[in-house]
Structures are given as C-alpha cells and as structure tokens.
C-alpha cells in the first residue's frame, strides 16, 4: 500500500503504531433509539413523497421535508455517483459543517465516463457549492467518505476517452477539510479501481473497506490518522473478499462489486455485487486475515434486483440497495431503491427516476438527537440529489 510515493507497510512502521481500536458495540441508549425507530423508517415512507425527476427547478422543495438539488457544478460535470453526509464532530473552520452532503461526479460535461473531476457540497436546504475540483480526467467514483478527523476520502477510476479500453487503476485521494489534496492511497492489487467504500470511524483511527471494480475484490485498510504529514498512515491492508464478477460494460463502463455496508453488532460487511446480481455477507470483517471468497449470499432476488450498486444499513437494521439496471433489466422497475432484511426478505422498493439507470449513490444522515432522519440519493440520469427528512414515529 502506497501513500503517494512512500511505502507505509514496513515492519518497523507497523511496530511503531499500535493496532487501531475498533469499536463494534452499540450503547444501551443507541439500542433504545433503534427500538423506537422500529420499522417507521422504510422505503414506504419515501414513496409517499418522492419528487418528480422531471421537475424544472432542481432546488425547490417538492413537499415539506423534501429538497431536490442539482449536482452539476459550473464546469458541467454530470453523472453523480458517491453520496455522503458530513458527520457530527467534523471540525469547524472550513466550508463543511455537520449535516452537509458531498456528491462526487463521474462524468465530464461531454458525458464521458471516468472523466469527472468535481465534488459538490449540498447544504441541508439544497444550496449547492463546489468543494473540490481535481485535474482533468479523474473519474471520481462512488467511493466517498467524510471522517470526523476532518478528512474526505474519494476514489477515482479514470479513463481518457470514456471507454473501458482506456480505464486505469485509480486511487483514493485524501482531501483536507478545505478540499485540498494532502495524500493519495494506491496499490496495484489492493486498490484496483476503488468503486465504493464503508468506514468504521474512531476519530484518530479508522477501518476502511473498499470494493475494487477492476479485479472483483474487497480490501480492508486499517488507518492511523494524524494531524501532520502524512495525514494518514496505512497500518495494514488486507484483501478480505474476492471472486465477484467483474468486466467492462459499454453502458456502465465497468461492472464489479460496489456498495458496502457494515453492521457493528455482528461484525459483518455486506457487499452488493452488481454483476452477480446478489448481496453477500463477509463474517468477522474487521479481523479476517485473508480472503473468504465471496462470502455467504444474503439476498438473491431476480424479481427486485437489477444489478445492485449502492448499499446502506438503516437504523432499523434493514438494508437499502440501489439498482443499476444493467443486469437483469426490467423497464417496469426503473431506477429502484430496494429495501430488504439482513436475512434476505424483500420489504419494499422506490423508483427515483422514470428512466432506467438513475439510481446509484445513497446515504443516511448523521444522528440529530431529534425525531427525524435524513436520506439522500442521487439520480444520475437527471444529475440531481434528493434529500428526504423523515419523522421517526
């Protein structure tokens, strides 16, 4: 594993930095909060107030509690992929505040895949501003995460002409709270097309899970986070899953494992494998010392799964995935977000666009301490972000 041009996995360096503490428990207060939520937070709640993707004013509230914002910055980047909330505890003094949403763009103004260079910030009210713009041809993927320590991590999978023939390995950029690049994580095997990510954020340490679209694997990175240079130290890097279908695709550019969701109560990492059209579970995710293959199948549903992409674990213990529509396509079920249990029982679904291929990134907001929760999802056909504020009952 490399941090820019420096190797960070030597025996001496590992010995100098202790193993990060991994918090895998939930407090009694948290358990009570989850019990209060019950099943009130469901796709059905969203379907009652879903915004029309064809609206001609992408920043107006559609109904109380809903905001739709354009994700297109001044340079014209389109095809929003990654979505993440700025967490509580994020340091003040920069353009980001807890509750803000970041969205990464994969395509440029000419709609060439793997060439988008921007991350936009969307305020809770739907106001958009530019947070980051990189050099030409980055191809910022759905691997996007904000850490409480003040850093933003974003994956990139570049092309030179928007086709799989010119696709490159990519890397993970480390941005500071002001949107400046302060480091890069790269590895020819362990970070081969970083497509999505999930994180256990412990402040001065973090565990990062990364899905790799170009070799069909999942990597775990144990990170030490500092305040100086380097910004982060990779204590260890381990491939914990492999064997997922991966290939180039003329419509989707690349198909492989995508969405990741971590359940701290069972130490399980869930993996949405687009090409396999299934969701898998990796047991003992923070401790695994080698690949366990694809893991166990937790959700196989050819009726409701159409190439699952993004994946999130809701506060009610349900999983939410977005469909790419490039696998097992069904024109009668376009751009669906699908809700199901960890045991693989289908619950509900919601279309975010009348056309196919619109759903990709999805995120859940940080705890507010109030009786509401926010859900954000991109529509990469319309290049918009919809934010729902739902009351917990």
Description:
This protein is mainly beta. The protein has three helices and 28 strands. The strands form seven sheets. Strands 2-1-11-10-9-8 form a six-stranded antiparallel β-sheet, with no helix packed on it. The chain has a four-stranded antiparallel β-sheet with strand order 3-28-27-26, with no helix packed on it. A four-stranded antiparallel β-sheet has the order 4-5-6-7, with no helix packed on it. The longest helix has 10 residues.
Which assembly state applies to the chains in this document?
A: single chain
Q: For this structure, what is the CATH class?
A: Mainly Beta
- Mind telling me the C-alpha Rg? 19 Å
* Class computed from helices, strands and strand pairing: mainly beta
CATH fold group: Neuraminidase
Task: Give the biggest sheet.
Answer: 6 strands, antiparallel
Number of strands: 28
Helix content bin? under 10%
Give start-end ranges of low-pLDDT stretches: 3-39, 48-61
Reported CATH architecture: 6 Propeller
Bin the strand percentage: 35-45%
Strand neighbour order, sheet with most strands: 2-1-11-10-9-8
Contiguous helical run count? 3
Q: Gap between N and C termini, in Å?
A: 46 Å
Q: What global shape is seen?
A: globular
CATH superfamily: TolB, C-terminal domain
Q: How many domains, in number, for the residues?
A: 1
Mean pLDDT: 86
